[in-house]
Amino acid sequence: MSLPRILNPREIPVAGTDAHLPPLPGDRLTAPALRQRFGLPRPGWQPELPGDGRVLPDRAPAPAAVLVPLVERDDGLHVLLTRRTEHLRDHAGQISFPGGRSEPQDDGAPATALREAEEEVGLPRRQVEVIGELPAYTTITRYVVTPVVALVRPPMELSRLALDRHEVAAAYEVPLAFLMNPAHHRRHVFTWDGGQRQFLSMPWRREGAGEADEVFIWGATAAMLRNLYRFLGD
Questions:
Q1: E strand residue ranges, 74-185
Q2: pTM, 2 dp
Q3: ω before 155 within 30° of 0 (cis)?
Q4: How far apart are CA 217 and CA 174, in angstroms?
Q5: Residues 101-159: tens digit of each pLDDT
Q6: Buried-most residue among 36, 38, 123, 136 (CB within 10 A)?
Q7: How far, in Å, CA of 199 to CA of 63, rounded?
Q8: How far apart are CA 111 and CA 64, in angstroms?
């Protein structure tokens, strides 16, 4: 049985939010606190969301990595995200982290994530401090994705990033505190003849921005952010 694609996630009904869960306090969302958390042993820690649940049967698993870039700003850490171009084969138009498939020359997930971030948005490696990894997340397209969490040292101007226009349509910064507040984690239920699929979304809009400017974070990217919330909160 073929799996239906979700072409417009905004139209999928919202079943609820997780406002009953506490937001992470500000003292856990600083660069020193994150370094400390990722430096602690975590034997047996398991993510809340290990994958999309269903995978395309005609795809072989492929290792991949994404960079979760946390940009240091005066008002706290911000997550650097991209919007993929519409013509790409997988996850076209979606909000994502910089990243992609691992190559034979890559020495582990951090090397993949750093290389892809440099290629996709021109983020210089010298400004990036890798502080840890989260467990791999398996997407519906059978990418086994390792999120590599990193701090991006200033100066870093969003407008000066060199975007690869073949893959990246735009780049955004979303406050980490917003994403680490489960009141902003919306649960959707997609129903079709063969069953159901659930996913999270975390829509963010800059103050004063219109609906057309909404950054609609959903799917694998939202799930990995939810796993980061759980990891930092444990």
A1: 76-84, 95-96, 99-101, 128-133, 137-138, 143-152, 168-175
A2: 0.93
A3: yes
A4: 10
A5: 999 999 999 999 999 999 999 999 999 999 999 999 999 888 999 999 999 998 888 88
A6: 123
A7: 22
A8: 11
